[in-house]
Amino acid sequence: MSLDPSFVGRTYPPTAPYQVGREKIREFATAIGATDPAYHDPEAARALGHPDVVAPPTFPVLVTMAASQQIIEDPALGVDYSRVVHGDQRFAYTRPVVAGDELVCVNTIEEITTRGAHGFLTTRTDVSTAAGEPVVAVWSKLVVRGEA
Amino acid sequence: MELPTQTFRVTRADLVRYAGASGDFNPIHWSDRTATKVGLPGVIAHGMFTMALVGRAVTTWAGAPDAVVDFGVRFTRPVVVPDTDEGTEIEVSAVVKGVTEDGLTRLDVTATCLGEKVLSQARATVRTPR
């Protein structure tokens, strides 16, 4: 089954807020070996002007990956997740994510293309606080591999 | 200007820890049986784990944990992680491409594993240290 190109431009309803926890940031930073004190110690983060510990640059993918389920599981779009590989990933930050953020995601399908048997799905997720402050825009390109 | 190369060792234990911290439990990142069944040579690192290591390199070069303003990569080749104590290694290097109108520094990044590029179009824009 191929991706339905009429979905380009579609925007999905905002997701339920994701609570960014201090311990989750510490756990993620530890898992990637990021030892900078600003990822672990609120005082070190405050010294840089942040209200609490700062998340490493790729942390927002935890939030957007969960949010993208509403696209991947949209039966009308036709993504077979067992055939999906990650193509591209990009983050454009207004500011870093910090502990205490309540983040809401709005997913938009930016592009659907086909090359040979493979489908390519580019999504943009606008991540903002529940109060509406923009934080980061996240692009993902997924490759849906065709049957060999 | 070329920036000093940074090397990151990656073992199976790192992938298990990343799976838990990120919530990405795809078995191709921990099960050889599953990985080989879908045509991979063996267990591979999460693409987002490789990107996270590159992010560490970028923040180290920038000199600040919160310096990254824009960061994008294309995943071109899987990082195969053998079930050994040594695992494998990812080497990350970069060149400074210039400075934007806003005074931000643009980097072109190269990440290799066993001499082969694992990312393409890897670019970061960073704030210069305060």
Account of the 3D structure:
The complex is a heterodimer of chains A (148) and B (130). Chain A is an alpha+beta fold and 148 residues long. Chain A has a single domain (5-20, 56-144), classed as Thiol Ester Dehydrase, Chain A (Roll). In chain A, 19% of the residues lie in helices and 33% in strands. Chain A has four helices and five strands; from the N terminus they run βααααββββ. In chain A, strands 1-3-4-5-2 form a five-stranded antiparallel β-sheet, covered by helices on one side. The two termini of chain A are 13 Å apart. The mean pLDDT of chain A is 94. By secondary structure, chain B is α+β, with helices and mostly antiparallel strands. Chain B is elongated and about 50 Å long. Chain B has helices spanning 12-22, 32-37, 47-62, and strands at residues 2-10, 68-75, 88-99, 105-113, 116-117, 119-126. The chains are: A alpha+beta (148), B alpha+beta (130). At the A-B interface, helix 1, helix 3 and strand 2 of A face helix 1, helix 3 and strand 2 of B. Strand 2 (84-93) of chain A pairs antiparallel with strand 2 (68-75) of chain B.
**Total separate domains of chain A:** 1
Order of H and E elements of chain A: EHHHHEEEE
Q: Helicity range of the residues of chain A?
A: 10-25%
Strand count of chain B: 6
Q: What global shape of chain B is seen?
A: elongated
List the helices and strands and how they pair.
The complex is a heterodimer of chains A (148) and B (130).
Chain A: E1 18-19, H1 22-31, H2 42-47, H3 60-67, H4 69-72, E2 84-93, E3 102-115, E4 118-129, E5 134-144
Antiparallel strand pairs in A: 1-3, 2-5, 3-4, 4-5
Chain B: E1 2-10, H1 12-22, H2 32-37, H3 47-62, E2 68-75, E3 88-99, E4 105-113, E5 116-117, E6 119-126
Antiparallel strand pairs in B: 1-3, 2-6, 3-4, 4-5, 4-6
